[in-house]
């Protein structure tokens, strides 16, 4: 018997509570069907999905819109989806997160300069078609295998944190597949990094850093704690002197100098930041900028240490020469490399294990597969160098590929195995626009040289910091987030950073 | 050998990296002491805290400032701390969260109308002394026992989520103790509530609801999922028709009507809200307002069901008459009762198990102990009724007690066992200012009657909603949060609610 009919009875026997405004059943199908009482079984679900039977994600027919499947919602995948024309293609996006992270500002969220939501852009706002159009979808899932012969990807839902749901599998046929899966943080096989260090690549990493930092600040104030333990808890160690590590160190020292002194006055003398780097900090920047950054960070109290990490324990790092460095918070940002899934794909590979692509970002030897962003690299046969793993590269590739796919679609090559004779036009060319990094205390570096050896303008100081902020403010994807980033910055300036640990 | 000296050597052997700006050791104590290499042992810490030896939290001496220990950072405790004069008292606050939650607006954060941080106020901003003054502290801990004879509380640190730290215990001597521990959500002993339902009392509850709601919206869109399962996932059930349950249902229906239709168009017909209440919704409100709320909620698509829950399973509720109600999200708000810790205290008790207090909010039979807010209630001997568990009551009691304690402090009764002969002045009198509740769609109820039977103004509609918003905007504690709440409301109005699941 249907529970809903029962409920109305229950109400009717006492005082009528439900006043049906319109007589029509609020559900578009019979109530008995609505909540089947058979227990939900994950096995049943896992068996269920036969692409052609229970979903409209089977191979598209000639008269239908062709389907682009995008794996990933990073810079590359998001920029691609933004540029794809939903009138030409159905767009299906598969990713374990439903938003793009504005990574260059992520370091600022760890200490409360910016709020987490200000740097996260929902995919549905980047490409509204995926939440509206009948054939376009976003699936909170990960891709588990790619069948390039049949033009099918196998996916599995993400259900983190919800105990009562088991993940289930489903298949999607594609006309065009764009692999934009990004990269994973490198640990160089060092023991204990994954267990004890926090990376800085996702919003939940920044949340974890903020919670741990505030917890340590509060714990170190508890009576009975030894001086040694207090200093350990409040020792923040950053491993890796790239832009992320330097910007995070700068933000942390700003937080210490402006907020900890005021709001955690009892322990302010115990908190310290150490940045460990095996080579040079900011090695891609101009030498004068590097020197400026070194001076600026040292002045703000960040200790710069040249060293290589050998082992990471729960409360201390061991360096190659045996030195032990106790820590309370350990942030790891030593660059990125291909993920296990990308490594496992049977596709041509570029140097360093990335998916190999040609000048038009196609994966050769298979039909209709493209790869962009950090997961891809030019094949040696193209004679081009593998581009650096930068947001700038990923974004430019996404934009280029969106235009290319739109062009292919309009010239009749949108469906699977139909693009062989299309004129692909100009190949992708990357022109580096320059690099920026903030170093704290309203100071930043702006390096406008086109390559490490090239010549060009390089600036450092308050004016650069102003350029840094303005540039990011105009580049944050939506007006909503632009507005919030500006408001967050203004609030931090006036009221200080938020220190509630929620 | 000290690791820091080692590190400088490492740097010196390659290119010098650290440029000591000033020769002086950046640490205020010898480096060898800074990071003792002995492993941190929780046993050692648990043994360590001898109140008088390693902390300055032992009994205060006659010449020193007396110490008020406040347990809790809810409405009562926070308002008390705001009012206490740090020139008269050292203030020590013990609570498992370092912020006050502006509970009436918590329901709005679950669907992204407001941001989580806009409704959380750090204690350090409410009473800056606790982060600055040498004898005032905030401890992220819970109180585990109270020794009223010796004027000592025993506490234990909170270290949720951090694997490598064990909690440790410490003691604090008090001159005045204020118990403001609040209450716990009532489950009436119904099996499965704690495991499967989400309460709505803390920021992390709101975060959990938001994550689960967005997860279910996305999962229900996955191919291969049955109609039954889709409807189950998107069935949001609220148990309890008090202001929290009603406001949450209203917010949810606003979210569905404005944002889900736009951003989750594929599944918009499957999402429904059911509010289950055993008696009347909003039973403390005027009967006309109740009728208005019932109509308004029904119009917004909320199904109001009169029923009593018997059992809660992972994916369905079972009502008393055997009806099974499948759900994807279950929010439980059926009122509050005393916590296990409050029940365990050997203090006089008021009806319903609250800590018994006299007209001056003192706990009789013991010296220097006060109890305010939801954890306390007038003793039968006072001839007064136990006040309802409302923010309004808690806030008024906090304000009264702050003034009373300041007065006691200035007239020489601040120290332990010194307040027997003080004139306590007027007893605490509660005057109900009225109740408010929003019901969604820019509508709210305002009931200005002084009691359930009394006469007075009662309003419902858009104007009430305007009063509701304005009243809360002026009552949010800090200017920072007032500003953020206003900005959040404006942004939601212009851009819609945020749907990134972070």
TrEMBL record, chains A, B:
Location of the FAD/NAD(P)-binding domain: 67-398
Predominant location category: mitochondrion
Entry EC number(s): 1.6.5.9
Membrane topology: Peripheral membrane protein
Catalytic activity, reaction form: a quinone + NADH + H(+) = a quinol + NAD(+); a ubiquinone + NADH + H(+) = a ubiquinol + NAD(+)
Location of the External alternative NADH-ubiquinone oxidoreductase-like C-terminal domain: 432-498
Cofactor: FAD
Lineage top rank: taxon: Eukaryota
Keyword terms of this UniProt record: FAD, Flavoprotein, Membrane, Mitochondrion, Mitochondrion inner membrane, NAD, Oxidoreductase, Peroxisome
Subcellular location: Mitochondrion inner membrane; Peroxisome
Pfam families per the UniProt record, alphabetical: NDH2_C (PF22366), Pyr_redox_2 (PF07992)
Family: Belongs to the NADH dehydrogenase family.
PANTHER family: NADH DEHYDROGENASE, NADH DEHYDROGENASE-RELATED
Protein name: NADH:ubiquinone reductase (non-electrogenic)
Lineage: Eukaryota, Viridiplantae, Streptophyta, Embryophyta, Tracheophyta
């Amino acid at each position: 018997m249907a529970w809903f009919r029962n409920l109305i009875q229950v109400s009717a026997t006492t005082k009528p509570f439900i006043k049906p405004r319109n007589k029509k059943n609020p559900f578009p199908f019979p109530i008995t069907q609505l909540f089947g009482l058979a227990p939900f079984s994950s096995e049943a679900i896992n068996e269920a999905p036969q692409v052609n039977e229970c979903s409209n994600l089977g191979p598209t027919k000639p008269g239908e819109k062709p389907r682009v499947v995008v794996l990933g919602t990073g810079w590359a995948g998001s920029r691609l989806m933004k540029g794809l024309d939903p009138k030409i293609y159905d767009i299906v996006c598969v990713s374990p997160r439903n938003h793009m992270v504005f990574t260059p500002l992520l370091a600022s969220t760890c200490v409360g300069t910016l709020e987490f939501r200000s740097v996260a852009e929902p995919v549905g706002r980047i490409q509204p078609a995926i939440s509206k159009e009948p054939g376009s979808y976003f699936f909170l899932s990960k891709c588990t295998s790619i069948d390039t012969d049949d033009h099918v990807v196998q996916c599995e839902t993400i259900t983190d944190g919800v105990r009562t749901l088991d993940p289930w599998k489903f298949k999607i046929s594609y006309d065009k597949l764009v692999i934009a899966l990004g990269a994973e943080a490198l640990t160089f096989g060092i023991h204990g990094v994954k267990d004890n260090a926090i990376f800085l690549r996702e919003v939940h990493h920044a949340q974890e850093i903020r919670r741990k930092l505030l917890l340590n600040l509060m714990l170190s104030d508890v009576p009975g704690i030894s001086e040694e333990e207090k200093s350990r808890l409040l020792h923040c160690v950053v491993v890796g002197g790239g832009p992320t590590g330097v910007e995070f160190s700068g933000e942390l020292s700003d937080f210490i100098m402006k907020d900890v002194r005021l709001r955690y006055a009892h322990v302010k003398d115990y908190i310290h930041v150490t940045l460990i780097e095996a080579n040079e900090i900011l090695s891609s920047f101009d030498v004068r900028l590097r020197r400026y950054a070194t001076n600026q960070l040292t002045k703000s109290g960040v200790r710069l240490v040249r060293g290589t990490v050998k082992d990471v324990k729960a409360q201390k790092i061991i360096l190659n020469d045996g030195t032990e460095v106790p820590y309370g918070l350990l942030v790891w940002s030593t660059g990125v490399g291909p993920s296990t899934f990308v490594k496992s794909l049977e596709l041509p590979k570029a140097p360093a294990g990335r998916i190999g692509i040609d000048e038009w970002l196609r994966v050769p030897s298979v039909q209709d597969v493209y790869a962009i962003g950090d997961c891809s690299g030019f094949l040696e046969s193209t004679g081009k160098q593998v581009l650096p793993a930068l947001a700038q590269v990923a974004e430019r590739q996404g934009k280029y590929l969106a235009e290319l796919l739109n062009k292919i679609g309009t010239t009749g090559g949108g469906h699977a195995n139909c693009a062989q004779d299309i004129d692909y036009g100009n190949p992708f060319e990357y022109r580096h626009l320059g690099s920026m990094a903030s170093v704290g205390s309203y100071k930043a570096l702006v390096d406008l040289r086109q390559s490490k050896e090239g010549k060009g303008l390089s600036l450092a100081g308050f004016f650069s910091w102003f350029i840094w902020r303005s540039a990011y403010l105009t580049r944050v994807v939506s007006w909503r987030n632009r507005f919030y980033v500006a408001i967050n910055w203004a609030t931090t300036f006036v009221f200080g950073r938020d220190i509630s640990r929620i």
